[in-house]
UniProtKB/TrEMBL annotation:
<feature type="domain" description="OmpR/PhoB-type">
    <location>
        <begin position="124"/>
        <end position="222"/>
    </location>
</feature>
<dbReference type="GO" id="GO:0005829">
    <property type="term" value="C:cytosol"/>
</dbReference>
<dbReference type="Pfam" id="PF00072">
    <property type="entry name" value="Response_reg"/>
</dbReference>
<dbReference type="Pfam" id="PF00486">
    <property type="entry name" value="Trans_reg_C"/>
</dbReference>
<dbReference type="GO" id="GO:0000156">
    <property type="term" value="F:phosphorelay response regulator activity"/>
</dbReference>
<dbReference type="InterPro" id="IPR001867">
    <property type="entry name" value="OmpR/PhoB-type_DNA-bd"/>
</dbReference>
<dbReference type="GO" id="GO:0000976">
    <property type="term" value="F:transcription cis-regulatory region binding"/>
</dbReference>
<feature type="DNA-binding region" description="OmpR/PhoB-type">
    <location>
        <begin position="124"/>
        <end position="222"/>
    </location>
</feature>
<keyword id="KW-0238">DNA-binding</keyword>
<dbReference type="InterPro" id="IPR001789">
    <property type="entry name" value="Sig_transdc_resp-reg_receiver"/>
</dbReference>
<feature type="modified residue" description="4-aspartylphosphate">
    <location>
        <position position="51"/>
    </location>
</feature>
<dbReference type="GO" id="GO:0006355">
    <property type="term" value="P:regulation of DNA-templated transcription"/>
</dbReference>
<dbReference type="InterPro" id="IPR011006">
    <property type="entry name" value="CheY-like_superfamily"/>
</dbReference>
<dbReference type="GO" id="GO:0032993">
    <property type="term" value="C:protein-DNA complex"/>
</dbReference>
<protein>
    <submittedName>
        <fullName>DNA-binding response regulator</fullName>
    </submittedName>
</protein>
<dbReference type="InterPro" id="IPR039420">
    <property type="entry name" value="WalR-like"/>
</dbReference>
<dbReference type="InterPro" id="IPR036388">
    <property type="entry name" value="WH-like_DNA-bd_sf"/>
</dbReference>
Length: 223
């Protein structure tokens, strides 16, 4: 899963990005609305976390601007402005949820799962491929109901391939599923993840194979 975090408190943003990363969530972060608008044009996000008090204006103004582009990406407002009238204002402007600061990461994760379940595209959160069942929100995978322990980034690659099984997945798509836009990606990093993942899947008898489509990307096929 990939989300956009619009938050000007750097320490909070870094802590949130690290905490969400442990749940397998890739986080792109920006502190200003203008950059957020551009990032939503360039990338597809599963959800957006939005603060209200931002350097270039009221965060809520971002919601109608995004909706005018036709995107219905779930938005959770997270802010210290948490009086009833402020919550009503945010929800009336189109926010899918409203979370007052401070909050627990566990509560944020629960609210993320809730808004994603409402999304037609993500209604079926669990992914099946071969003998695997992958749960991206809980960062888990089983083979014939037996848990398979995978490093976070390998699991993100696996989920991205399994979601598009029997189709070629571009390298850029896989990299976007694993790294945020600020990270420097080594040229062979993705290939290394794939190589280790292949061995683990074979050892586990997962019933899938990952094929290299030279110069394009990778393809997962069920065996």
């Amino acid at each position: 899963m990939r989300i956009l975090l619009i938050e000007d408190e750097r320490e909070l943003a870094e802590a949130l990005s690290a905490a969400l990363g442990k749940h397998g969530i890739v986080t792109d972060h920006t502190v200003i609305l203008a950059d957020a608008v551009e990032l939503t044009r360039q990338n597809r996000y599963d959800a957006i976390l939005l603060d209200r008090r931002l350097p270039d204006g009221e965060g809520l103004s971002f919601i109608p601007e995004l909706r005018l582009t036709g995107k219905d990406t779930p938005i959770i407002v997270m802010t210290a402005l948490n009086e009833p009238k402020e919550r009503i204002e945010g929800l009336d402007l189109g926010a899918d949820d409203y979370l007052g600061k401070p909050f627990l990461v566990e509560e944020l994760m629960a609210r993320l799962r809730a808004v994603l379940r409402r999304s037609p595209e993500l209604a079926e959160l669990k992914i099946t491929a071969g003998r695997m069942v992958i749960d991206p929100l809980h960062l888990s995978v089983t083979v014939d109901a037996v848990p398979l322990d995978l490093p976070r980034r390998e699991l993100l690659v696996l989920a991205a391939l399994a979601r598009r099984k029997e189709k070629t997945v571009l390298r850029s798509t896989l990299e976007a599923a694993v790294y945020n836009y600020e990270e420097e990606i080594q040229s062979n990093a993705l290939d290394a993840h794939i190589s280790r993942l292949r061995k683990r899947l074979i050892d586990a008898g997962a019933g899938v194979a990952i094929h290299n489509i030279r110069g394009v990307g990778y393809l997962m096929k069920e065996e």
